[in-house]
Amino acid sequence: MGHGWVWSKVGAVHGARGGDAVACAGGIHSHRYRLHPPADSSYERCVGLTWCSNCREYAGAMVFVPRDEHLPDLLAELPAAERERLARSELTMLDHLDRLVRRGLWPAGRGQA
Asked: What is the DSSP string of 30-81?
């Protein structure tokens, strides 16, 4: 991977940091996904990712999503082995989601944060 494609984890995407000469004007995308099956007591503990495709900043955190809120499964059409591979690494998941954005395959209604 080239240097320009390396992700930088930050507390807040496009947050003010010392040394920033020009703020990035890229759009911020977000996605939340569940880690646990519905029967699990941790079902409402989910991963929330936000990122900018232009400057390659991202933030990730555990977020609460009510049990009755439907979250789109952007990995539903992938084979089980590929889904598991993506779920094991935040950066691998982020690369996959960002490719969907860049290819114009981001689901309708899932625009920018």
From this structure: EEEEE-S-TTSTTTTEEEEEEEETTT-EEEEEEEE--TTS----TTTTS-HH
Chain centroid, CA 81 distance in Å: 20
Do the strands 45-52 and 57-64 form a parallel or antiparallel pair, or are they unpaired? antiparallel
Q: Give the separation between CA 17 and CA 39, rounded to whole angstroms.
A: 42
Question: Residue 16 has which token pair?
Answer: 């003010």
Burial class (CB in 10 A: 0-12, 13-18, 19+), 29: buried
Compute the mean pLDDT over every residue in the chain, rounded to the nearest whole number. Answer: 85
Which whole-number Å values give the CA distances from 97 to 13, 24, 42, 71, 83, in the listed order? 16, 20, 24, 15, 12
pLDDT tens, position by position, 11-37: 888 886 665 555 788 889 999 999 889
Distance CA 103, CA 71 (A): 21
